[in-house]
Specification:
alpha/beta, Rossmann fold, 9 helices
């Protein structure tokens, strides 16, 4: 399977540098422009479009669908990470309201999370399950997956395992895309955990 991963276009919270996880914001005007430009810049040969269910991704996928004349399929496995109490906050606001959680780096540890949110392992599990479903259904096809920044980090790590430093160094900007080849199922995430923790301290 040839997997093309695209991040959604810009939202207002992206500009304001607010933690944006499960809040269902749509694209702003710039994000619409980005999504339209992305739709015409994608490589040829896409057979299937799959999107996160969140509006910002679905809108971005919709513009690609118009150009490619394909339907958009939705898979909740590729929704953005739930960041719990950090949702909607800027870093200064987090430091004011949740200084102890930020000090513990709960958003950057494999098995910790902001209160009410997902840890990194949980996101790895659901995204890897989603990729395995895509491979089972679309082996030999080219799949456009429209998703989110943190999901993009996970997809990158599933194809190019890295430690924690490398994991957080990777970032898709709004409406950017990356390309991957998948020839076999994603194995159990235990191996990715070991690599992630190798130099996490």
């Amino acid at each position: 399977m040839h997997l093309i991963l695209a991040r959604h276009g810009q939202t207002d919270w992206n500009i304001e540098r607010r933690f944006l996880g499960t809040t269902d914001l749509g694209l702003n005007d710039e994000g619409v422009k980005q999504a339209k430009a992305l739709a015409t810049a994608l490589p040829a040969g896409i057979d299937v479009i799959v999107s996160s269910p969140l509006l910002r991704a679905a809108q971005t996928a919709g513009y690609a669908a118009e150009v490619l004349h394909l339907p958009v399929l939705t898979d909740a496995a590729f929704g953005e990470r739930n960041v719990g109490v950090f949702e909607g906050l800027t870093l200064p606001e987090i430091l004011e309201r949740y200084p102890q959680e930020w000090e513990r780096k709960v958003a950057r540890q494999w098995d910790l999370a902001p209160a009410g949110g997902e840890n990194i392992e949980q996101v790895f599990v659901r995204v890897s399950d989603g990729i395995n479903r895509l491979l089972a259904r679309y082996e030999g096809k080219t799949v456009l997956l429209v998703a989110h920044a943190f999901v993009g980090r996970v997809v990158q790590a599933l194809h190019h395992p890295v430690d924690a430093e490398g994991f957080f160094a990777f970032a898709l900007e709004n409406a950017q895309w990356a390309s991957y080849q998948r020839t076999d199922r994603v194995p159990d995430v235990a191996g990715y955990r070991q690599r992630f923790l190798a130099r996490a301290d």
